[in-house]
Design brief:
With 187 residues, this protein is mainly β. Helix content is 13%, strand content 53%. The chain has one domain: Jelly Rolls, CATH 2.60.120. A hairpin with a 4-residue loop joins strand 8 and strand 9. Bound molecules: calcium ion.
Length: 187
């Protein structure tokens, strides 16, 4: 019995330590620059068939057809994520943060997001300066399962910049779902 309870205590300690490591991995240390990265709360109807939550807006250009909706079916976390349905003829559409942030080229940033989708083609997640130059980011191709994209690095220069998520060349009837977006300035 004494042996059993000693083993039990050790098992509890191991589980406790493992949970500590999980918690450390889940929350990167630093200053979060994304507003409502979880895409939670009320989604406002900004235009017909365009529902977007606080902190975010959209941009579109050229000739394309799309809608933005609140997806509540198995979001990556919380109650909701952002769904984009796109059929482009020419031009493009992006989800972006409403507010620009100031990036410092002497600091390291971690940009992460969770994505799933179909027929999106390559998607770019990046932080863009006012002159359209990308300061930090990369392209990736989502699958139908949630997958995290993580980029760590220093911006190419110090500037005010805005976070964009942009399908570069979606096929007809593409959809993209977005959740848990973060831009962390490391300490
Ligand atoms: Ca969420």
């Amino acid at each position: 019995m004494a042996v059993f309870s000693a083993w039990n205590r050790r098992a509890l300690l191991v589980v406790g330590l493992a949970l500590l490591f999980v918690a450390a991995a889940a929350s990167e240390q630093g200053k979060e620059l994304v507003v409502n990265g979880g895409l939670e709360g009320d989604f406002s109807e900004m235009k017909e068939n365009i529902f977007i939550p606080d902190g975010w807006v959209w941009n579109d250009w050229g000739s394309c057809s799309f809608n933005f909706t609140r997806q509540t079916s198995s979001p990556h976390s919380g109650q909701s994520c952002q769904r984009m349905e796109i059929s482009l003829m020419s031009g493009g559409v992006a989800l972006r943060q409403r507010q620009a942030v100031n990036l410092d080229s002497s600091k390291t940033y971690v940009l992460t997001g969770w994505f799933r989708g179909e027929d999106t083609g390559p998607v770019m997640m990046f932080v863009r300066a006012n002159n359209y130059q990308s300061l930090l980011g990369r392209t990736f191709t989502p699958t139908r399962q949630w997958k995290q994209v993580r980029i760590e690095g220093k911006p190419t220069r110090s500037d005010s910049a805005t976070l964009y998520i942009l399908p570069l060349n979606p096929n007809q009837s593409a959809y993209l779902e977005i959740d848990d977006v973060s831009l962390m300035e490391k300490e």
